[in-house]
Amino acid sequence: MKEKIIHTDYNVNIEGRNRSGTAWRWIFQASTIVGILALVALLLNIMDASFGYVAYEAKVNPATLASNGVPLEEQSKEQLVALLQSKLSSGAFNKLDKDEPFEKRSRANVLQIVNERIVKYEVVQVWDLWSSLTKSAEIKATVAKDFPQADLKFISWLTADFITRPQSSEAITTGVRTAILGSLWTILFTILFAFPIGVGAAIYLEEYAIDNWLNRLIRTNINNLAGVPSIVYGILGLAIFVRTLEPLTSGEIFGLVDATTANGRTVLAAGLTLGLLVLPIIIINAQEAIRAVPQSLRKASYGIGATKWQTIWSHVLPNAMPGILTGTILAISRAIGETAPLVVVGASTAISFDPTSPFSKFTTLPIQIYQWTSRPQPEFRSVAAATILVLLIMLLSLNASAVVLRNRFSRRY
Amino acid sequence: MAQSSPNTEASKYVLETKDLGIYYGDFRAVTGVNIPVERHKITAIIGPSGCGKSTLLRAFNRMNELSPGTRIEGEIRFEGENLYDPSVDPVEVRYRIGMVFQKPNPFPKSIYENIAWGARIHGFKGKMDELVESCLRQAALWDEVKDKLQQSGLALSGGQQQRLCIARALAVQPEVILMDEPASALDPIATLKIEELMQELKKNYTIVIVTHNMQQAARASDHTAMMMLIEDGKRSGTVIEFDKTNTIFTNPKDKRTEGYVTGRYG
């Protein structure tokens, strides 16, 4: 190109501007790569612990428990109960029966108790996925030498059994059904509590509240509340839902007290506490979504004589709904992963009974992860890793279903 | 508000302003407006940018109340009654005095729903399909959209969208239609269509239109109100001349009007 004559006051320097643009581009790309690497490292770490060799011994060889040639695994529930009765002390047997009568228990549950109390599988050593793959021969030699009684198996800690089994005290027989159901129950009450209240508050603040100092103060403080540490909400939940509202959260006023509960540390109290925690997030996101609805749409509606409520219901809410749902998805994802407030509210860590009502004791997936990682036995790290996988899968599928729901709403004209 | 009926000796004027002043907070946007709006006629409001044309128009159906801090002094009489009387519900005002906006703003719904919604919220019990068709026909849009009533109103062209907005306003059977520069976002052909449409509509409705386009005012309107900013302590918009459109454009009394309509000013 023929050079342009440039006034001396300008230092055009297009090359230099392009260079600094490229430099910034590299910086941003590097940040993205760091983020992706961190995610990959996390996943690899979890995978490493979730699969691998495990060496375990049985205190009592299951083969010796076969009755009339029927191996343990294939015996009927009645046979298993009889086995328990003969092998356990009557005190221990009666306690199990008192916790939940044997007639009501499933065969799988009874079999699990037999495995836990009589056979007593014990993990003697675990290896992570990497060494299992690279040092297979070495591991086999070690086991043959150090633990001649032990079985060595390459296992995935995350199995269908792991998901459907209730919790137990042995790593190899434990499961997360209790925690999955606990998480689902808790989150159900979180949504039921926080979604309508959050959206309602956002509608009020955006559409009805006039712009005065009081409402500005309220808005600012909702933003502040979203930044309050979750454990503070746990303490709030403990004070309000567990202590003050105990008659409600324990189900006492409905006459539905769970025999095993008798206090306010229930699914309902946990759900409401998490609801409080995510309420500001839902309000803020819903406010943003409502504010994003173009003013021209409201004018169009008022212009043909619609009332405020008709305008909100028919135009503002349908158009804000995708945004509101996106915000709610984010909030619920956060609630599913919360641990600290539930520890304070009083999640049970060792329960093997499924929650069956709002007034049941509960545990959740993050609580289980926390509890298992704090155990000294290395095999529980693998159990925790498998639980993390379950939690991640649950999060992703909840998010996916919410995205589908959102897209249905936003299929606009 | 009393329902107007053609049998009573209704005044010639549907709307009349009496010393109307409009304020945004402390700022006086419009001062001392006294104009009548004649039944079944098109009244145009013209003037340079920022002189309060749209503000005045929005006061006619109390749309300006949607922005907080707006208030008026003086009166606007609609069929003889003060629109701003505390006993008057703004929803009823907007139901009887409809509005078409500068930028076409159809609802993000189907063409059919755009029209049906307004009728439905006012408890329309007749045959909806017929109403939709008649409104679209009155808005000269029926032939273009009759095969795609279930398609989005937003998929139409700008001119079609604006006619859809007019059809939407007709669906609630207003007595007056306010149009705020309805053709300013449209090309000349679409503009012409809107103007032809206005001539049809004035048989049944009273129309007040704000326009930037003087040819449009000259072509389409029966009466014209010329607005301008005046220095009255503070700058404020007012109507400096109101007359038959023909007079305003050929023989204006006010020098400023003459300057504006001949293009020497503004």
Structure description:
The complex is a heterodimer of chains A (413) and B (266). Chain A has 413 residues and is mainly α. Chain A folds into 2 domains: 106 residues, no CATH class; 233 residues, MetI-like (MetI-like fold). The model of chain A has no long low-confidence stretch (mean pLDDT 87). Chain B has 10 helices and 11 strands. In chain B, a hairpin with a 2-residue loop joins strand 5 and strand 6. About 2% of the residues of chain B have low confidence. In chain B, the strands form 2 sheets. Chain B has a 6-stranded mixed β-sheet, sandwiched between helices. In chain B, strands 1, 2, 3, 5 and 6 form a 5-stranded antiparallel β-sheet that branches. With 266 residues, chain B is α/β, with parallel strands linked by helices. At the A-B interface, helix 13 and helix 14 of A face helix 2, strand 7, helix 3 and helix 6 of B.
List the keywords.
heterodimer; A: 413 residues; mainly alpha; MetI-like fold; 2 domains; 3-stranded antiparallel sheet; 17 helices; 5% strand; B: 266 residues; alpha/beta; Rossmann fold; 6-stranded mixed sheet; 5-stranded antiparallel sheet
Sheet of most strands of chain A: 3 strands, antiparallel
The CATH class name of the domain at 13-102 and 174-261 in chain B reads Alpha Beta
Order of helices and strands of chain A: HEHHHEHHEHHHHHHHHHHH
Shape of chain A: flat
CATH topology of the domain at 13-102 and 174-261 in chain B: Rossmann fold
**CATH fold-level label of the largest domain in chain A:** MetI-like fold
Supply the helix-strand structural class of chain B: alpha/beta
